[in-house]
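Shapes recur. Our protein:

. . .
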Amino acid sequence: MRKLSVTELNRLSMEDYQAAAKRPLVVVLDQVRSLHNVGSVFRTCDAFRVAKVYLCGITPQPPHREIRKTAIGAEESVAWEGRADTGALLDELIAEGYEVLVAEQTDQSVMLPDFRPQPGQAYAVVFGHEIDGVSEAALSRARAALEIPQGGTKHSLNISVAAGIVLYALSMGMAPKP
């Protein structure tokens, strides 16, 4: 066994990536504080061909060297937009046909392995503040709260880790939009 070189991986160029089909999936970062978490989410969104990232409220925005450090350029390949108000954005996305999902532990959470994306349905998945989680504005607009099963002593995962797990699981059930 040997590791593949970067050229052997046959990754898309920036131009080809931007022109490629994306999944009918957008990510909403709701009051995320950490520049490193934002960068990591960009990198994960690039890997799973997420259509767009929305950076809401206090969530830091590119260009910033600390975002770039973890995104390693994905903040340039993945479409993004800054928004002041998470609730107003989600209302717009709902009007466009998106169903809102939040990554959160609630009294009605669906365990992530039990959630099945509906074919052809577009989703907006919201990840919240590192301490407080998703806002009430997001929670009140959500069709479902997705919970990652955990068996340890901690009650939550880092937002960038949670985003990787949730986006991987959703991606397995969603083909890129042609």
User: Anything to note?
Assistant: Residues 159-172 form the longest helix (14 residues). The chain has one domain: 26-172.
